[in-house]
Amino acid sequence: MQITKASIITIGDELLIGQVIDTNSAWMAQVLNKAGITVSRRVAVGDEWNAIWEALDQEMESADIILLTGGLGPTADDITKPLLCEYFGGKLVLNQGVLNHVTYLFEKVYNRPMIERNIKQAEVPDVCTVLHNANGTAPGMWFEKDRKILVSLPGVPFEMKGLMTAEVIPALLKKFSLPVILHRTLITAGIGESFLAERIKEFENSLPASIRLAYLPNYGMVRLRLSATGFEREELTAAIESKFTELQDMLADVLITNQDQSMEEVIADLLRSGHKTLATAESCTGGYIAHLLTAMPGSSKYFLGGIVSYDNQVKQDLLEVTPETLYTEGAVSEATVRQMVQGALKSIKTDYALAVSGIMGPDGGSDEKPVGTVWVAVGNSREIITQRFRFRFERRRNIELTAVNALNLLRKFIIDNTVSTIN
């Protein structure tokens, strides 16, 4: 089976020094994969002529499609356009269509005067096909050489995405006979990657050549992805669905979801389907769990609010944790998180509440309660359950692990209570 391979080159010194995180290539890879194009390499280079030229030479050797982002702005360090002009043996010419668009943006949208630098945005190599950038001034550019395609796109994410969606993907679909690529994903928790691999090794060995299994561990969970590639969609769909059902049945006891979802998306689905509401009471996570929940569209329907009780006085005043509990048991204790849940249910008046209190580090631990010790409680008006965790990482990761594990405990509690209500 002929595989169409793509390489993505992202350009910018800011990417190499960690000042900006490259989200462009991740998004582009997802879109290309859905179209049936395999991304074989992702490369980041700085704003340096020789480095970009060398990257182009290397990727033109191995890929059918090369996508570049960045370096198309109006400043001196934006060298992609003149470099591509020389690389493909052309010369820069003023494109009237691009100039009209740039003029419209500055006069009608930005309400700013045009200067020489802005006019230069309308200059393009005469050996490229211009791709209309509806969201900005830098056009996309499509080059072809030796049966290879190179597309240069702006680095601004929403401009790049607009061009990919409206111009690049439709053109690539016309240019290539692309296979179907299908994915099915499930997520497990409570079992390590190596134990999981041992448990399903016979299943993995039974997979046909057209289906591959990938392990993607993250924060105490393992995402398992089946990927199928071929040209017969119906046959491929039947094959991957059969194997995916088999995999789900084998892992029913550790399965969180049979969709490619985050934990907060799973919680959202459970609360929405049950028409239930949630409140949070956070100490060590400082509102991070509430942030995850409210990042979801429509979260106001099920998440009513949260209390960040970082200081003990706030725990007493807003959540009614007793001074005796804090004195005898401490802020990081089962008794404290139980009372935090009770206080959240009382003050915010929700169906469920979740509470966390812990020591995130790097300081604050003791022999009895070392750094990474966390107590979690979830409950409703009838029942509260708790669990202690001990994480061993740096502060940021401890916070993220606390959030995911707390939400997973909530997930189990909601499911158990839903089942018991039905019965």
Automatic annotation (TrEMBL):
Homology family: Belongs to the CinA family.
MoaB/Mog domain sequence ranges: 7-175
Protein name: CinA-like protein
SUPFAM superfamilies the record matches: CinA-like, Molybdenum cofactor biosynthesis proteins
Alphabetical list of InterPro entries matching this protein: CinA (IPR050101), CinA-like_C (IPR036653), CinA_C (IPR008136), CinA_KH (IPR041424), Competence-induced_CinA (IPR008135), MoaB/Mog-like_dom_sf (IPR036425), MoaB/Mog_dom (IPR001453)
HAMAP family: CinA_B
